[in-house]
User: Fold this.
Amino acid sequence: MSAFRLGWHIMKERISAGRMMVIWPLLTIFILFASWGLSDPNLNLPASIVVDSAYDVMYVASAFILLSATMGAVLISFDGISRDRLSGVLEVKLSQPINRSMYARALLLGHWGAIWLPVMFLNVLSVLIIWHRIDDLPSIEEFFIHTLATALVLFWYTSIQLLASSWAKDLGSSIAIGLGIWMIFTLLWLVFTTVIAGLSGVGVDDLNSAEFVRIDAFMDLLSPNGLYHHILEMHLDNVDRGMSPWNVGLATVIWSMLPAYLLTRRIERIHP
Assistant:
C-alpha cells in the first residue's frame, strides 16, 4: 500500500470524526463571514488597508483563515499519534510489514488532507461571495498563490502538531503543546518581534518605522503565519517590506521539509 493510499484512508477517518462538528462551523464562520464582511463596498477600514480588488479582500481575509484553519489543523492532528500509542494500536500498526517512513508520510498527508479539503471548499465559496459582492474575481495566478500558501501553512501546522503528538505522554500534554505552539505563532509572535527589535536598538514606539518593519519581515520568516503572509504579499503591489523573494522561497522550502523530516525520523525511531 502506497503512502497516498494509506493517507487517503486516514483522511477519510479524520474527516468523518466527531470533532469535525466543531471544526466545520468554526471554518464557515471565519472564512465565509470574513469574505462577506470585507467585500462590503461601504466598509470603513483603516487607511493602511487597501481593498480594491478580489485578491485584496482575500489577502485581508487571510487573517481569519489563519485563526480558524490552523486551529482546525491542531484539533485534527493533536492525537494523531499519541492516541494510538497510548491504546497500543500504534505498536500493532508498526509491527506490520510497512515502511515506517512511508507510514509517517501517510499520517502527514492524511491529517493535512482532512483540514485542507474543507478549507479549500470554503475558499472557493468565499471567492464566489466576493464575486457576488464586488463583481470581481481573482486571476488564476492570484487564486493559485492563495491556494498554495493556504495549503502550505496547513501542512506546516499539521507536521508540527503530529511531531508534538509523537513526543506527548498523554492526550492532555499533546493538546497543550499544540495549543501552546499555535498561541505563540498566532497571538504572541508580535511580542517576540518587539523584544528582538528592542534588544537590537530599534524603537518600538512606532511599529511602522522602516527599521521595525525590516525586523518584523525577518521575524516573519521564522513563523509559519508570517511566512504565509510573505507568500501572499509577493503578488501585492502596495505591500513591500523589503524582503527578497529568494529569502521567502528558501524559508518556504525549510518549513516544508524540516518538520516533515523530523516527524519521519521520529516515527522511524519511536518505541511504542
Notes: Residues 100-134 form the longest helix (35 residues).
